[in-house]
Each structure stands twice: as C-alpha cells, then as structure tokens.
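Project outcomes to date are best conveyed with an example. Our students and postdoctoral researchers have been running inverse folding experiments weekly, and each run begins with a structure described purely in tokens. The record below, which covers 281 residues, was selected by the lab manager from last quarter's runs and is presented without edits.
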C-alpha cells in the first residue's frame, strides 16, 4: 500500500483504507433490528444461513469428542473413536456409531436416531441448539458479506488476496453506517484510515481498478470463445455494465479516465449481443 498516505481526517483525503478483525458469531435478528432502525434497505443484509449450513454447524457444535461423517448428502453419522487394549497389551481402535441424522433439505425436516447414551446426549445438544444456528452468522459469513458490500460501493482490493480495501470518498459514509451497526451487535472490529490524494496514490488506485477490469475482460473473452448460454450472457452483460459504471465513477472521483479499457468493454458488450442472437437461433 505504498503511496497511500494516512491522514487524520477526511479533509484532503481521496477515500478510506479499511480492513477488519472478526471474532465470534452474529445473530442475524439483532443485526436486522439495528439495520431497519437505521432505515437501511433490508435487501442489503447478509443472507441467513442455508438449511444445509445451519444443520452442519449445529452438528459440529454438538459433537464433543465425536466425529460427524456424511456418507451421502443429507445423512450424518456421529461416531466416537475408541481405543482399547487386549490381553497382550496391544492397542487397537475402532469407530463406535453413536447416532444418525437424516435431513430433508427441501422439506426442512430432521430425524435423529440415537444408538447409545452418547448418542442420546448428542441428540439433546443438537436439538437444543439447532434453531439457534438457523440465525447465527459466522466470521466467514460476515467477511463474505463485507466484501460484497464493499464491492457494491465500488471498493477495490489493495492486495491480490484481499484484506485491505480502498473505499471511494463519496461512499465512505455508507461504509461507516455498515461498520457502526455491525460493531454494535458483535465483537467484530472494522478499522479505517483516510488516504491522502497524491499522484502516487491515484496511480496505485487506478492500477488496481484497471487490473480488475482487465481480468474481467480476459474472462469474458474466454467465455465467448466457448458455448455461451442465455443465463451466462445475462450475467456477463450485468457484470460489464457494473464494470463500466465503476470506471466512470473513478474517472469522476480521481479525474483520470481509461478510454482503452472502456472501449474494450463497449466492444465486448456488442459481442455479448451478437452471441445472444446466435444462441437464440
């Protein structure tokens, strides 16, 4: 992040450098209450866990010295590995089946069968927490959501693997709203440092924006060389429109345009339409 100079306030800044440290769970219901109280659109909240995710998390949480195996989708066998010694003092081990869980993800039903006391105890822990896990958001859920929200605000990652993101000046207030509400209902921390607008900083930010657009262009060109589908073309049409809007946003924000990238995206938009006509024949 060399070239992005931290300053004390937003005056003279060209945006915000942000990162986060996540710890613990977030109850979706608490976040939703605060979100609605702030008057923010509900469709911008994270997704609640799927039935599959919530069930697997409840199973993992209920296992105490046990292992959950899934021989096929929707079926889980809870086992305990037992170590024993024979008369010759030789150590042997075997898996003891404690219980079995069958989940119908479509009908959202769960059937638990216990084989012994350990299985009965597991069932009690599992059934006691299952409804709670339907609402719990893990650090992975929240991190993915923050990346999604940052992307919607036209943020760019300052590292290939993520971790640090640049938020444009005119979107910082919206990011601050997310930060304040999330920190209010959790132990998560979202940090931010305003970045001063210098020639070097502008160059770094634009290089990231260009690299992101060039990556999308390369992926789209490869896709168009294959066998495009209507669904795929629709998705790419939306992605190209979003990329062009992002380029225009940064041009207005930083005063630097990327005519070559925009021209390429415009040409590829035409290719998408041509492929759409060909696919419909």
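After processing, the design step wrote out the following sequence:
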């Amino acid at each position: 992040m060399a070239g992005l100079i931290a300053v004390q306030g937003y005056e003279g800044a060209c945006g915000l450098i942000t990162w986060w440290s996540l710890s613990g769970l977030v109850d979706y219901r608490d976040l939703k209450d605060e979100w609605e109280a702030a008057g923010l659109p509900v469709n911008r909240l994270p997704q609640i866990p799927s039935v599959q995710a919530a069930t697997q998390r409840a199973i993992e949480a209920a296992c105490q010295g046990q292992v959950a195996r899934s021989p096929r989708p929707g079926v889980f066998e809870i086992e305990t590995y037992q170590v024993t010694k024979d008369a010759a003092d030789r150590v042997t081990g075997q898996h003891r089946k404690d219980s079995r869980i069958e989940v119908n993800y479509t009908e959202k039903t769960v059937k638990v069968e216990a084989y012994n006391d350990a299985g009965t105890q597991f069932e009690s822990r599992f059934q006691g927490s299952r409804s709670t896990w339907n609402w719990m958001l893990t650090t992975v859920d929240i991190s993915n959501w923050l990346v999604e929200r940052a992307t919607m605000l036209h943020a760019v990652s300052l590292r290939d693997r993520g971790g640090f993101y640049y938020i444009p000046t005119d979107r910082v207030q919206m990011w601050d709203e997310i930060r304040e509400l999330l920190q209010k209902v959790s132990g998560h921390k979202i940090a931010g440092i305003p970045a001063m607008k210098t020639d070097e900083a502008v160059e770094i930010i634009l290089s990231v924006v260009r690299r992101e657009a060039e990556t999308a262009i390369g992926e789209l060109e490869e896709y168009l060389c294959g066998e495009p589908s209507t669904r795929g073309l629709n998705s790419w049409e939306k992605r190209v429109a979003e990329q062009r809007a992002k380029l225009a946003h940064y041009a207005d924000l930083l005063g630097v345009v990327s005519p070559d990238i925009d021209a390429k995206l415009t040409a590829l938009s035409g290719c998408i339409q041509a492929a759409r006509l060909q696919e419909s024949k």
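The chain has three domains: 7-48+138-197, 51-134, 200-280. The chain is about 50% helix and 25% strand. The training component of this project remains on track.
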